[in-house]
Write a structure and sequence with these properties.
With 171 residues, the protein is an alpha+beta fold. It contains 3 helices and 10 strands; from the N terminus they run E-H-E-E-H-E-E-E-H-E-E-E-E.
Amino acid sequence: MTTATIRQHRLFYAIWPDDATSERLMRLQAPLPGRKTHREDFHITLVFLGARSSELLPVFQEILMRLSKVEMTLVVDRLSYSRRSRMVRLEMSTPPPALFQLQSELIQELSRHDIPLQSHAEFRPHITLARNADAPGALQFAPITWHANHIALVESLIGAEGARYRVLASR
């Protein structure tokens, strides 16, 4: 395969919520300003890989399958807003240590396979609810709790409506 025919994919690993959790997230985001995340696209990014060659997809899938089993309870209970990026996010007041351990294990596996990563800031797990948003007013809501047991390798597809996500592999 020539270099010109190798396809690039914008990839990341993420914790993917179940349908009931996605439904609760969608109801929470309804009154928010901005371009809302699609119901099928809610997630917590563990590691953003950026643009990668299709030749690496089997390696990324192998890494996914080698990770420890994902079993943790996540409680998203705090709304945040970034003026710089104009994003409304949902965060956890107390993320479980298992989430940080999983992210660390993933980075170690990528390193073991000599997969370079761009320098990344401190891991701040969140779910993006809306982009291109003005600051939301006060929003009262009950914490959303979900039993997370689904990790995915995901491709980000950029279109006219912004990014949409396609799960390439999961477990």
